[in-house]
Amino acid sequence: MKEQAREELDLQQFNIRTDLALEARELAKPDGGPIPGIHSEVTEDDGITITVLHVQNEQGSQAIGKIVGQYVTIEVPELRNGDTTLQDRVATQFAKHFESFLERLQINKMAKVLIVGLGNWNVTPDALGPIVVENVMVTRHFFELMPDQVAPGYRPVSAVAPGVLGITGIESSEIVRGIAEQSKPDLIIAIDALASKALERVNTTIQIADTGIHPGSGIGNKRKGLTKEILGVPVIAIGVPTVVYASTIVNNAFEMMKNHLEEQKGDTNQIFGLMNSIPENERLQLVKEVLGPVGHDLLVTPKEVDQFVEDIANIIASGLNAALHEAVDTDNVAAYTH
User: Fold this and answer.
1) Which of the residues in the chain have pLDDT under 70?
2) Is residue 257 part of a domain?
3) Which contacts of 180-183 are long-range, i.e. CB under 8 A and separated by 24 or more positions?
4) Bridge-partner residues for 235, per DSSP?
5) 226 Cβ partners below 8 Å, 6+ apart?
6) pTM, full prediction
7) What range defines the domain where residue 177 resides?
8) pLDDT at residue 278, rounded to an integer
9) Which residues are part of the propeptide segment (predicted)?
10) Angstrom distance (rounded) from CA 88 to CA 331
11) pLDDT for position 9
12) Does residue 9 form part of some domain?
């Protein structure tokens, strides 16, 4: 009877949107078992969890809904506490893993790099990209105007925050493509705010991917992305989840209430009935079905988002400075944090 009720609900029509490959894998295989075409490795470093996930082929891509490529996720649950020592350690880890992407893509030490900060600088949760652009070391003009005075250990780096369609009336990908055609970079780094399905990952997680990026994908927009196919050069994507859906909060609250009652009473079937038998990802889809039509599936961000976004943008900027310029010490990026 329960199975029949679940079929009538048709839960599968409501997709759970997440920009994190790690979460897509969790949704595809909640028990953590192996997925054909997906290889992952997890390492721990004193409060920093690093997951390297490789989508090896089309089978793996279809299984989790992510493009073939490599995704590195850096999770730091305590990052919201404002610990500057921890922030420096995260920036160092970020720099080292970003360097591995440069090596894998065979980007040489003098290759020209264009950093693109996607997002709306007027909306704090979406301002990650523009804030990173403000804090990275921009050097291309020195190489153009006074190349003989540039010290060893630096490369030509340019940066731009192209704004969003609602402000400029132009797609970000069109702006970046025009800039790339004129400045001819060897690599593009695209930075954007993402959406997560987990409260604990908001403003505490950084994802690096060699698959490019799609502006607005985290909130359901389907527009032209920044990829090698579109721009003609490799694109490394950097993203941080800064928002979570209201449906996720409702679902997480349900799970916490269920766990609390199980500790108090043991059996919760009398209270929750059918809801007890529905897997978490399907229950989330059901919540979205309820909230969506009435316009209540809002995008939510913590009230301290101003400081969180500023801190994590500085972590990314200082990590990029260390990874892109040999003259910047990868093991001591604190000196280069603005």
Assistant:
1) 1-17, 214-223, 265-266, 268, 270-271, 273-274, 276-277, 280-281, 292-297, 330-338
2) no
3) 180/114, 180/231, 180/232, 180/233, 183/112, 183/114, 183/140, 183/158
4) 188
5) 116, 118, 172, 173, 176, 188, 190, 212, 213, 214, 215, 235, 237
6) 0.84
7) 20-243+302-327
8) 73
9) 1-19
10) 9
11) 36
12) no
**Phi and psi (nearest 5°) for 236?**
-100, 130
Whether residue 277 is contained in a domain is answered as: no
pLDDT of residue 146: 94
CATH label of the domain that carries residue 82: 3.40.50.1450
The residue among 175, 133, 70 whose CA lies nearest residue 313 is: 133
Three-state secondary-structure class, residue 189: strand
The total domain count for the chain is: 1
203 Rama class: left (phi>0) / alpha (psi -120 to 50) / beta: left
Distance CA 176, CA 161 (A): 9
Residue for token pair 């500057």: 84
Residue 16: what pLDDT?
A: 58
Tell the burial category of 260 from Cβ atoms under 10 Å away from its Cβ (0-12, 13-18, 19+): exposed
Sequence-separated contacts (24+) of 8-12 with Cβ below 8 Å: 9/286, 11/278, 11/282, 11/285, 11/286, 11/289, 12/282, 12/285
CA pair distance 133, 19, nearest whole angstrom:
21
Q: Is residue 11 part of a domain?
A: no
